[in-house]
Amino acid sequence: MTTSYESRYAGSPAEVKQMDTVQLRQAFLIEKVFEADRISWVHTHYDRYLTGGAMPVKTAVVLETIDLLKAAYFLERRELGIINVGNDGIVEVDGETFELAFKEALYIGKGRERVVFRSKDASQPAKFYLNSTPAHHSYPTRKVARSEAEVVTLGALETSNHRTINKLLVNSVLPTCQLQMGMTELKPGSVWNTMPAHTHDRRMEVYFYFEVPEGQSVCHFMGQPQETRHIWMQNEQAVISPPWSVHSGAGTSNYTFIWGMAGENLDYGDMDHCKITDLR
């Protein structure tokens, strides 16, 4: 078997604010997303979200079910979102082939039985970043190129948060059950993401930071607005954000991050904003 997984329990605000640095990192940080010729998953009890990575190098990697799901195959009752953050790759879905270049996305609906990941060139492997959520309905598999994304530019260089939001797997682009994924690219000279910060009680979120230059880091902020905590993160690491928590970050350089969300709500704009001066 070329698949591994671990499960993380959900924590309340009262519990989380008592955690020290090590405990916070153990509960929320996903330090290693990609491993050669394997799929590695982290399951969180927040909305039963699965975050993982597939990096085929010497061989193709097959999407296998895991004991946690109690399912005959991985997508029996789930949907899957993929964004390639490496070199050119190929995803085969029940015999249909999709080529994914850097920063291109693929949505795979519930009920697809066989999914295989390949790199076009083993010396320059693809890195497929994976998010999966429970699904109640089967929607079509669809590739979303960057040119098909819904693009929004926010912020300004003067406030260090000039950024481009690429909405890739969202309901304004294609139908999904509950999974939403997109990618935010910070302009040179900008370091703050998702500022002013916000929460959204009807959905949780996972951030994956990449394109962090060598020797640089990102400080990710979480917790209730009046009781924030921080986690220092490196390139190609992910972090789990509970529904009650803010999710924001500042880097020592500009960078890119992928956001993935799940819950009962598909309205991207449904969020409770926090005034910057009210954060504690």
From TrEMBL:
PANTHER family cross-referenced by the UniProt entry: 4-DEOXY-L-THREO-5-HEXOSULOSE-URONATE KETOL-ISOMERASE (PTHR38461)
Cofactor requirements of the protein: Zn(2+)
Catalytic reaction(s) noted: 5-dehydro-4-deoxy-D-glucuronate = 3-deoxy-D-glycero-2,5-hexodiulosonate
Family of the protein in this entry: Belongs to the KduI family.
EC numbers on record: 5.3.1.17
Entries under CDD domains matching the protein: cupin_KduI_C (cd20491), cupin_KduI_N (cd20294)
Cofactor: binding details: Binds 1 zinc ion per subunit.
GO biological process, one term: pectin catabolic process
GO molecular function: 4-deoxy-L-threo-5-hexosulose-uronate ketol-isomerase activity; zinc ion binding
Function: Catalyzes the isomerization of 5-dehydro-4-deoxy-D-glucuronate to 3-deoxy-D-glycero-2,5-hexodiulosonate.
Pathway connected to this protein: Glycan metabolism; pectin degradation; 2-dehydro-3-deoxy-D-gluconate from pectin: step 4/5
Recorded superkingdom: Bacteria
UniProtKB keywords: Isomerase, Metal-binding, Zinc
Enzyme class: isomerase
Protein name: 4-deoxy-L-threo-5-hexosulose-uronate ketol-isomerase
Species assigned in the record: Chitinophaga solisilvae
Gene3D superfamilies given in the database record: Jelly Rolls, pectin degrading enzyme 5-keto 4- deoxyuronate isomerase, domain 1
Annotated Zn(2+) binding sites: 198, 200, 205, 247
Isomerase found in the keyword field: yes
